[in-house]
Task: inverse folding
């Protein structure tokens, strides 16, 4: 009944039709009338680039893949504390790529330094 209410009274007719036809999917449509969402997808690329504030302090730009992974977990946890439902990072591999690159460069530099000692 909640979905019928949302589709008939809250959504524009073309959006409701697109959902009905399967062109788009409105996840948790039954919660649409409450003005809340139950799931959230986070995009950490800008947060990783500029750092972010969790409400308990500012986290600077990470400098290794392990820091990127830890901050991704903090991002999901901070969001989960604010809202119920599922949390995800749909572009996780792209968001982690700069951390992989930073860690690779550090390891390469460290190993080249060892090599150059001989």
Result:
């Amino acid at each position: 009944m909640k979905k019928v209410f949302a589709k008939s009274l809250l959504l524009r007719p073309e959006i409701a039709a697109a959902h009905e036809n399967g062109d788009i999917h409105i996840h948790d449509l039954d919660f649409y009338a409450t003005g809340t969402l139950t799931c959230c997808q986070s995009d950490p690329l800008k947060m990783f680039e500029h750092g972010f504030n969790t409400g308990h302090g500012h986290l600077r730009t990470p400098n290794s893949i392990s820091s990127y992974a830890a901050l991704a977990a903090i991002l999901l946890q901070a969001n989960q504390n604010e809202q119920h439902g599922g949390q995800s990072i749909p572009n996780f591999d792209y968001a982690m790529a700069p951390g992989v690159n930073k860690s690779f460069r550090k390891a390469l530099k460290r190993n080249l330094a060892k090599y150059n000692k001989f």
Remarks:
- The CA atoms of residues 36 and 83 lie 9 Å apart.
- The two ends are 75 Å apart (CA to CA).
- The mean pLDDT is 87.
